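Bit of a strange request maybe. I'm writing a small parser for structure token strings and I need a real example to test against, not something I typed by hand. Could someone generate the tokens for this chain?
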Amino acid sequence: MKGFVRIPNRIFDCELKASELLVFCYLTSKKNHLSALTIRHETVANALGVSRNTVLAAFKGLAEKGLVEQQVRYYRGRQVSSRYHVAHLPGGWFKLPRGIFRLQLNKSDFAVYLFILRCVNAKEHGWPSTSQISQGCGISKPRVRQAVKTLATMLLISKAQYVKQCGAYGHNHFDVIAVAVREALLKVYRKHKRQSIADVLWTTFYFLCLWLAIPIQTPADLLPGLLRAKPGKHIFLRI
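Reply from user aminoacidic:
Good idea to test on real output. This should exercise your parser:
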């Protein structure tokens, strides 16, 4: 399962807050084969793009629910990074891309994304309702709708309105976009954006040459002429 983290399905039965879900998944991605890891609160905060107080509150909540156990360590009389043991939840699991943490999603956006991942099938299709997402993540319905828009804008998911055969509206149809596919789409978008900017610059360059009365021969001839040009004077380039 290279590139993915196994997240237990039962994590949504623990009634975690959005910040606790985020921290739990990050710790799960960093734990070793013994479900243990040594990490500082500041490291988690910097990796997830949240405040240290948010991380501290999340650790406290996870410890109270029995999902994370802290082992305080000392070296030469000074306290060092604590060691944590992440609880193993039996049952099924679903895949979470490791690269998702690089995007530093908002905790609510991450919780909605995680729940949609839990609901999709092998073909990355799912039909969770807004109410189901709200109850599973513990956030309000308006915040769920806003998170769905944000995730769609970031090319992490796509949403379509599902219409039944009788004509009535059903649950939304979600498709999860793989991280590799997302990176390929962003690469094409950036390339197209650069080309569009280049077209605008060349158009501006062209009209500037007309204003300076510079005969346009080839792109290689334009720059020397512009460097010598003065508005209102005719300058002829040699080919």
